[in-house]
Structures are given as C-alpha cells and as structure tokens.
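Let us practice reading a record.
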Amino acid sequence: MSQSTALSKRELTLDGLHCANCAMKIENGVGKIKGVSSCSVNFVNKTLTLEANETEAEHIAGEAMRTVNRIEPHIRVRIKPVPAIGKVASTSTQATSDSALTGQAAASSAAASGYTSTSNAHTKHADHQHEDAHEHDHAGHTHSHDGGHQRKLLFRLLGGGVFMAAGLLLPMPPVLELSVFLLAYIIAGGDIVWQALRNIARGQVFDEYFLMSVATIGAFAIGQYPEGVAVMLFYQLGEMFQGAAVERSRRSIAELMNIRPDYANVQTAEGIRQVSPEQIRIGDRIVIRPGEKVPLDGIVVEGSSMLDTSALTGESVPREAKEGSEVLAGFVNKNGVLTLEVERIFSESSVSKILELVQNASSKKAQTEKFITRFARYYTPAVVIIATLLAIVPPLLLNGATFSDWIYRALVFLVISCPCALVVSIPLGFFGGIGAASKNGILIKGSNYLEALNHVKYVVFDKTGTLTKGTFAVTAIRPATGFTEAQLLDIAAHTELHSSHPIAESIRNAYQGTWNEARVTEYSEAAGYGIEAKLDGQQVLAGNYRLLEREGIEAVPDSSGGTVVYVAVNGTFAGTIVISDEVKGDAAAAIHQLKQQGIRRVIMLTGDTRQTGEAVGRQLGVDEVHAELLPQDKVMQLERLDALRARGEKIIFVGDGINDTPVLARADIGVAMGGLGSDAAIEAADVVIMNDEPSRLPVAIEIARRTRRIVWQNIIFALGVKAVFLLLGAFGIATMWEAVFSDVGVTLLAVLNAMRVLRFDSSRMNRLVTSPARDKRASAI
C-alpha cells in the first residue's frame, strides 16, 4: 500500500457513554464521515475506533469529535495519543509531545466549532509523577461521573416515587392531582423528554427516548397519569440496574486485563530510581522485588524467583525464573529479587501488545452484532409506524372502537418495542467471551473470529513448535540383548562427551549419572557416520546405521521415526537411542478433544521427513500427515482443503507464527502457538495461544460456543417476550405495567445473562482435555 493510501487508526474515549443505543447512533454518524474507512464503538469500554487515510486522519478525528458532540452533547470526547511504536526511550519525549500536539490540534478544531473536548488534558508528560497523577485524576473523574449518573437516577426515582405515592394515596381535587403527577413525571422522566426533543431537533427521531416520551405523554393525554409516571420510574429503575450490571462487567473485564505495570525500578549510577516503563531503554537493568509486576520484557541477569504468569498465560502453576531466563512484562514476582536486562521497550513488550489486542478486539464485529445493529435501525421506525396505524385505523374501521382505547394500546405497543435488550446485551456477550478467553490465556482479536470458531470443521497443525516442543530430546532407549537402558545411555553419553553436535548434546542432557572424562580415550569423529572411541578400554561406535554397516556389524534397523543413534561395543550391536522433537504433553489429548467437539479432519503439516512426520502423526492420532513441505506447499494444502469444504465451514491453521506467516494469513482463522515473546505470532495470527499448549484450542472453541449460546438465548428471549407482549398489547390485554416489564425487565435479564460468559471455568474442561479416557463427559460441558 502506498504512503498516500495508507490507513491510520485513531481511538477516541467517550466519557459519559451510558446508552447502548447512543453508541449505535454515534457509530452510524461517524461512519458516514467522508474518508472514514471503518468505524466501531465499543459500548462496554467506552471507546470509538476509526480508520482513515493517514494524511487526513487528524482532520477526520476532529470531525469525529464534532459529530459525537452533535449527536450526544453530554459525552466528553478525548483522542488517545498515538503510541510511539518502535522508538527508544530517548526519543519518547518527542514522540509523546507530538501525540500531545495531535490531541490539542483536534481539541482546538472541535473548540473552534463550538464543541468541547478533554484531549489536551490527557496528554503524556515526560515527568512520571505528573503522568501518574494525571492518569489517576482521570480515572477518578470517570468513576465519579458514572457514580454521579447512578446517584442522579436514584434521586429521580425517590423524588418521583414520593410524589406518585402522594397522588395515589392522598385525596385531592383533579387539578392538584394532575399537578402532583406532572411534578412526579418531570422529576422521574424530564431528562428523557428533554433528550428526545434535542434529538428530534438534530433529526434523530426514532430512538428509545422518543418511544418513552410519546408513550408517557400519550398516557397523560388520555388521563392515565399513574401509568405515565410509572413507565418513567420503571424505565429509570431499569437504566440504573442495567448501568450497574454493565459497570460490573466492565470492571470484571478490566480486572482480567489489569496487567499493565505502573512503574519500573531502574538501576542508575545514583542507585535505584522509580520511573515510568515508557522511559526505559533497551539494555537498561531493572530490579523487580517480591510482589511487583515485571514492567518490561527482559533476561534475568541476577537472582532467582517464582513468577505468577496467570495474567498472560492463564497458568495457575508459578514458573521458575533464574539467570538466563526470559521474563515477560505482566508476570508477577512471587518471592525473590530479580535483576533484568531489558530486551524491548514498553511499546513493543508483550503486555503492551496484549492490552492493545484485547482493547481493540471489539472493532472487528461479529456478523450477529452487525445484524442486530441493522435490525435496530429499521425495527424502531417500523414499530412507530405500526403503533400509529394501531391508534388510528381500528377506531375508523371497527364499530364501537374508541380512540382512547386504541391510543392506549398503541402507547403500550411503543413501550414494549424498545430494542435495548438486544442492543446492550449482544455486544456485551461477545466482549465477555473475549474477556473469558483472555482469562484463559487465549487472545482473540475480534468478535468476528470468536464467532467464526463456532464453524470450524478443519484444523491444520504445523508440527515443530506447535504439536512438538521444537527441541531435540531422547525419546526412546532400545538396548539389545545383554544390555540395559542405563548401560546403553551411559556408553552413548560418554562416547558423545566431546561432540558439539545437537544430537550429542541431547544424549548428554538425558544422562543423569556421574561424568568421568578419563574413561574416554582415542576419540575421533567420522564425518557423515558418527564417533569412534575407547570407553573403559572397549571399542565403541556411536552413529548412524551406515557406520555399523561399514564396520560389518549386524544391527536391527529402527524405523520408529526421529534421528536414530546406533551403538556397538567391541563389534557387538548394543542398541539404539532415538532422538526426536519431543511431542507436547497435552497435544494428543487436545486432538482427541477437538474430534469430540465435532471437528471433521485434523491435519498435520511439516517440513520434516515423511518417516518422522508419520511417526508423530500416529502418536497423536491426526487424520492426515503431509511431510517434506516448504511454506508455499503448506499454503497449497490449505487451498486444497478450501476446495473440499462446504459453504460456511471454517479452516483453522495453528502454527508458531514465525515461519508460517503465509499460511496463518491464508486460513480463515490463524492461530499462533507459542505467542509469548513472538512478535510475528501476535502480528500474523487472529488468535494467539499464550502458553504453548495445544489444549487451549478446544478451550477457545468451547468459549466461542458458550458465547454463541448465550447471545442467541438473549436474542430469542428478547424477541420472543416482545412478540408475545406486542400481541397482548395490540389486543388490549397487556397494560403499561406489563409493557415496562417486557422492556426494562427483559433488558436487565439479558444483560445479566450476557455476564455469565465471563464466568467460564476452564478447569473442568482442562481435566477432560488431559484425560482422554474421560471423553464421554466432554460433550456435556
């Protein structure tokens, strides 16, 4: 893509966004701005993400701010500063200054048009303490604003309730009764009516404010004062509970992703100094004390400790770190003191990329979300038209029908028709699914990929580093008659003592006995064959089959796969040692579970020899093995599957994200295994498994299925209840009270149901994955 057409992403924070329908209107409005290629509003974390031409991005961001303020004037908009990716700390001050100017320019642009922004109040400063104070002030402000919103609702409920009770219980003349109920109505719902009027003035007619206002004002017009007030009271009560439920969900997701380190202890000539992680350079040394988060990726140069990696990987078992160990930002130090040499600046660290992925995941919406957005856009005008016809046509056509009766039915119809339950709960359900996956060490880059996991029928695995550990290890010791496994390994390890070959190193690593170099004499290596040496005075050969064949020693060929080392002592075959890329402990169980979940074919692709590939394939129980492949050959295999699959079926490719970028991009869903520290994996894949375990893939699929079940439960429940009550209202059976339940009650229940996604517990599934013998119960999860 050329520089002139390159797309740039901008994020706007929408403080004060409490209404899901408002979020939908903002998304539609900003999406219509000329030059915006894509736009998405995340109601849950109050952000707007847009993409536009790089040369016009700042101007369009300012236009987006004006559009938001025009649609919802009460929302305070600020532009998140553009991160200085790839710049070292020495230039970060300039980068953040540029970002600050960017935000200020947008703010000035908005202010010039009569709109306000807080962009310039949230720019970064080089001074860490000032930055921290700024962030904490903002966090407190946002929180208090939300709390203030809830308190205002509570005061309206109490005030409106008191006056309504007075109107119902105290005897008074009709004019005073009307005044009391009108006062109760203004207290309870005056803000709703005012918002409806402002929206109408801006050309935004069909929304929940309009529906509530018309229904309740109509109730007053036909003398149903108590019901008009009651609708507003219960609507506000529902808003308060719905807001509390959504805030709880927001906090739950925020807690799952609360992995951003607040500071770093950097070693300087004057001693240890506490600074912002953004100020650290590559090569700096930082100290992590017990209980502190690791602020940046690095290598341990001093100390040892146990690390809690659960925030990044979902693993509950602490991981040991010692000198030479790689440690990632976001890990929590449990006991010892560690000194790290920094390998990546903060903007390129694992934790920074993970946070960005999860926060931006909602910008890629599932088809179900897109459908509901389109549905709500046409649904509300349609029900207003139907309600109007319901109020006017029957009294004109039916004998004995009165306008007051049918107007009341039409007003009930309007209250019932509000689409809040769908507009709020469905995005919340998908975001909860992404949060639940993150909690289990699975990063899903968008709701579209979460939904696509439900339709997977073909899973294609790379072998090395995905199903296997990617390191050579002794996997079998097969002694000949007259030798034991311990004897054979002792002979081979000492014979290979002076070799620098990786095969020799793996044999030495497997040996647990005591080393005695004096036992080995007359050592020599024969290129292409192996090693000849004297061990304890005996002539020993250790190498390939050709070495023994050359010496006329009869040996039993080993065709089990992997690299085979043949050993002979004094001209007698002593046995074989098999060295291969060790299969991951949960790989076979993961493949077994995938088949239990209904995956049609599990296929393994590898660049290794056919013999090795087929041996691993048999061990794991895959359906197909294709070996000796180059990267382009793997792409061809995916294209072959693409031609075979039925419409709507999806293909997953699972690779290590380093050599498999073309295949990850070609698959419907690219899954990167071994995502820890792998930039290529995070960039190329749609899903990143954070802990190297293939067993996380069936967990991801189960979370996707659970999310889909809950989302469709909400869709069916909301539409079903509304359909029943719309019919009841049209036939005069349902009153305003039932109408309020069908709107407020259904919305609240749908939100609470959506929150169940976050409570996904993978522990039972993990037990099933690691225990294939218990697979019959897997389908019951």
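A brief commentary: The chain has 25 helices and 26 strands.
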